[in-house]
Amino acid sequence: GVISIALSNRQSYQTKESMSRLQENLRLLPDILRKPISMAESLHPASGVDRIIVLYTGGGDMVNSLGNPITAGPVVNHFYVRNNALYCGVTYPATPGSEQPLVDGVASMAVQYGIDTTHQGQVERYVDAPNDWNEVISARITLRLLDPTLARQPEVVLTVAMRPRLLSRLP
Questions:
Q1: How many CB atoms lie within 10 A of CB 88?
Q2: How far, in Å, are 58, 81, 158 from residue 44 at the CA level?
Q3: I need a labelling partner for 45 at 20 to 30 A (CA). Which of 4, 13, 132, 157 fits?
Q4: pLDDT in tens, 115-171
């Protein structure tokens, strides 16, 4: 009797702890990705379905995705999933010490790019690999999260407009 109650309490605690981590990840992921991607002035051509590499100009009170101040000049944020974590690198290709995990419990990331071939400032469709990176004005990112208590992997889908690229197309 006492052992089964202790095991039941332990399982209940582990389930609650797992749900708490999952909820925290669901809250953090959009905040981490939205700001740097929305500031993208361009995308590195090595971006793909499993990574997004955004480039923008720093200055003022800006910080990069690792929380480091950006005084001025070009900024690189390279987001990808490795070892069940969302990583960010601040150089591309990566150099020692330029990347770190941001959020644990992320199984995979899939990126699609919203393209505007008519230069009207509206996404016409989303593609895995655009023919012309200059036509990309937004990104749709799907993150699959790990949750050992559920049979399926919850998803976070985030669509972010790249404001400098979008605004440059408006009449």
A1: 21
A2: 16, 17, 20
A3: 157
A4: 999 988 889 999 999 999 999 999 999 999 887 666 667 888 999 998 877 666 665
**∠ CA 150-153-154 to the nearest 5 degrees?**
100
Q: For the whole model, what pTM was predicted?
A: 0.80
Can you read off the two tokens belonging to residue 74? 């070009």
Write the Ramachandran bin of 73: left for phi over 0, alpha for psi from -120 to 50, otherwise beta. left
Beta carbons within 8 Å of 110's beta carbon, 6+ residues apart: 49, 50, 141, 142
Long-range contacts of 94-102 (CB under 8 A, 24+ apart): 100/66, 102/28, 102/32, 102/65
Residue 108: left (phi > 0), alpha (psi -120 to 50), or beta? beta
pLDDT tens for residues 102-122? 888 889 999 999 999 998 888
Find the distance separating the first CA and the last CA of the chain, reported in whole Å.
74
Yes or no: say if 92 and 78 are a contact pair by the CB < 8 Å rule. yes
The tokens for 21 are: 């981590």
3-state class (DSSP) for residue 163: helix
DSSP string, 51-85: EEEEEEEEETT-B-TTS-B--EEEEEEEEEEETTE
